[in-house]
Specification:
12 strands; binds pyridoxal-5'-phosphate; 5-stranded antiparallel sheet; about 425 residues; 7-stranded mixed sheet; alpha/beta; globular
Length: about 425
């Protein structure tokens, strides 16, 4: 039998072996997190008596959709919140965030990001970039933010000043994952501290979390520690690559009701919304999410470790604490970034035969290169890589349904980029 590794140059084989030994204890830590989270999810499926009939879904208005209501109760329980909205009609993470914010905010209110500028697509919804009809700006909702410190941490002095002097701040937003920035993602412990800080100065401020990429990477979630409202995507961590679309919100009951009024119509609110063929995928996806997220996190650890041994600049470092799926590799120039990205594409289960070409994308400001050969389009719980072609040429690598796939794809990409 020829082993998968034997096609690579000796030097790369030796590096892989060295990396395997180095990261083994770190991978074992991930296994412990997976076990903890899997136990909690299983307990909730048992507690809520999930049964075959919950998986069927409803049609038309979707009144009395017991499976839908049960899944939302499970999400609320898992995230230790009063209520949840888990719907196929929320088409993306961006849509979930936009729905949550439009639900909570009114004209003359201010949305304030304490973690620097928000993720690119959210800037469009706010109206900071682009000139999109129906943006928050058009509704007279104000936006403000405080840049992070040079170390990429929250500037607490600046936050304190804003909160004390601007009584129009109604929502304080925290983005857990780095998005297309080179800062570190914020751990749940850090978000806990931010939430407590905000509440101490302004107890009425609504603390909102963009949790995209974060779920299940730790044993805790921001909503365990006082965050009022939180958004995530079903085709990232929480859907395990099984959910075909959808996103979710969890949080305080009144805020979930407001978001539902915005998503659907005021009146029926969350009592409506058929789930047709989605429920089985949602239930199965959420059940598998602790495991699949663990696989992806292990893949990120391997990616960081192997690229570090190649001398590349990576963030987070292989042994740093992890709170999301994103692994950044900085290439400092266009060519290796495109080469590495292409290799990921060529080692994907779908569309392996195409070459990614840098291009403009709706909702993004710069040219983007993107590799994704996923079963669910844009599902970044599946292995993908992307990044804007601008300094410092940072490629964001995330996801992986199985550790084995990530290991194979990344080893091939390293071979293509550094050994050819
Ligand atoms: C992915 C992501 C979003 C938006 O999610 P989409 O499903 O791509 O719209 C928002 N914020 C962060 C930090 C993300 O990583």
């Amino acid at each position: 039998m020829t082993k998968w590794i034997e096609k690579f140059p000796q030097e790369l084989q030796a590096k892989v072996k060295q990396v395997d030994e180095m990261i083994a204890p770190k991978l074992a830590e991930v296994d412990e997190i997976v076990l903890h989270n899997q136990q909690r999810v299983l307990d909730l499926y048992r507690k809520h008596h999930v049964a075959e009939e919950d998986l069927v879904g409803s049609t038309g208005y979707g009144y009395d959709d017991i499976g839908r209501d049960k899944l939302e109760a499970i999400f609320a329980d898992y995230f230790k919140c009063e209520d949840a909205l888990v719907r196929p009609q929320i088409v993306s993470g961006t849509h979930a965030i936009s729905t949550a914010l439009f639900g909570a905010l009114r004209t003359k209110d201010t949305l304030y990001y304490m973690t620097g500028m928000p993720y690119d697509t959210i800037q469009q919804a706010i109206g900071i970039v682009g000139d999109n009809p129906g943006s928050m700006k058009e509704y007279g909702i104000n936006f403000d933010y405080s840049p992070l410190t040079a170390e990429g941490k929250v500037d607490y002095a600046a936050v304190e000043e804003k909160l004390k002097n601007d009584s129009s701040i109604k929502v304080v937003a925290i983005q857990r994952s780095r998005g297309y920035a080179t800062r570190d993602s914020f751990t749940v412990a850090e978000i806990k501290e931010m939430t407590a800080f905000v509440k101490k100065i302004n107890p009425n401020a609504i603390v909102f979390i963009d949790n995209c990429y974060g779920e299940f990477t730790e044993t805790d979630e921001p909503t365990f520690y006082g965050a009022d409202l939180m958004a995530g995507s079903m085709y990232k961590n929480a859907g395990a690559g099984v959910a075909k679309s959808g996103a979710f919100l969890v949080g305080r009951h009144d805020l979930i009701m407001q978001a539902a009024s915005r998503l659907f119509a005021p009146g029926p609110g969350k009592g409506e919304g058929a789930t047709y063929g989605y429920q089985r995928d949602f239930y199965r996806g959420f059940f598998l999410a602790p495991h699949v997220t663990g696989e992806a996190v292990k893949g990120s650890i391997y990616t960081a470790a192997l690229l570090e041994t190649m001398g590349a600049e990576v963030s987070p470092k292989w042994d740093a604490p992890r709170t999301d799926l994103v692994q950044t590799v900085v290439f400092h120039s266009e060519e290796p970034m495109i080469k590495f990205c292409a290799s990921i594409q060529h080692n994907s289960p779908l569309n392996a035969f195409v070459d990614p070409i840098p291009s403009e994308m709706d909702n993004y400001e710069d040219r983007i290169i993107m590799a994704s050969g996923s079963f669910i389009e844009g599902s970044t719980i599946e292995l993908s890589s992307d990044g804007p072609l601008r300094e410092p040429y940072a490629l964001y690598i995330q996801g992986g349904l199985s550790y084995a796939h990530v290991k194979i794809a990344i080893t091939n990409a390293v071979n293509e980029t550094y050994f050819k």
